[in-house]
Amino acid sequence: MKKVLALTLVAILLAGCGAATTVKTGLGHTVSIASSKDATAEAEGAAQVDTVMAAVSVDKAGKIVSVTIDTAQVKVNFDATGKITSNKDEKPETKVEKGDAYGMKKNSGIGKEWYEQIADLEKWMVGKTVDQVKAMKLNDEGRPAEADLTSKVTIHVNDYIEAVSEAVANAR
């Protein structure tokens, strides 16, 4: 989240320096509650909101010169009576802010944490147009099938592509 805000501030500063005519920056996002679960007699329920955020800068030819992606994955647990059991005073961190604490590396077939994979995806997007990004080859699970990404990125990328596409459409 801090990275997205920092990129936005840089874009504002560039606009003040007259660079806005060559580089445009936009923000995009997606929101999903698909990972939410009902409470049962045996287990707590969880209302989960996944918010993907992207800040993207494009040049006058429409090529991506900078992209920053992050996800806020906020879970609120509740029992079978509907009582919230999560700490309501806790400030959720984004996946980038969590870093190694997110815990993907131990289950990753490529030994990479989420923030490392998203950084590789961002690098892959730089120099491409949004149409090229949207044309990325994916497997049936929504993971990259591009030869230069399969050993670097194993996360589902559909929401990231959607947020980047919206950011480019919003670039001013």
Describe this structure in words.
This protein has one domain (2-170). By secondary structure, the chain is an alpha+beta fold. The chain has a three-stranded antiparallel sheet with strand order 1-2-3. Helix content is 28%, strand content 23%. The chain has helices at 2-16, 95-98, 114-125, 130-134, 158-170, and strands spanning 23-32, 45-59, 64-78. The two termini are 20 Å apart. It has five helices and three strands; from the N terminus they run H-E-E-E-H-H-H-H.
Mean pLDDT: 91
The proportion of residues in beta strands is 15-25%
Instruction: Give the tally of β-strands.
Output: 3
Order of SSEs, N→C?
Answer: HEEEHHHH
Major sheet attributes = 3 strands, antiparallel
How many distinct folded domains?
1
Provide the low-confidence segments as ranges. Answer: none
Rough shape? globular
As laid out across the biggest beta sheet, the strand order is: 1-2-3
Task: Assign the structural class, choosing from mainly alpha, mainly beta, alpha/beta, alpha+beta, or little secondary structure.
Answer: alpha+beta
Number of helices: 5
Q: Gyration radius, to the nearest Å?
A: 18 Å
Percent of residues in helices: 25-40%
How far is the first residue's CA from the last residue's CA?
A: 20 Å
Question: Which descriptors apply to this entry?
Answer:
3 strands, alpha+beta, globular, 3-stranded antiparallel beta sheet, 23% strand, 172 residues
Secondary-structure blueprint:
Blueprint: H1 2-16, E1 23-32, E2 45-59, E3 64-78, H2 95-98, H3 114-125, H4 130-134, H5 158-170
Antiparallel strand pairs: 1-2, 2-3
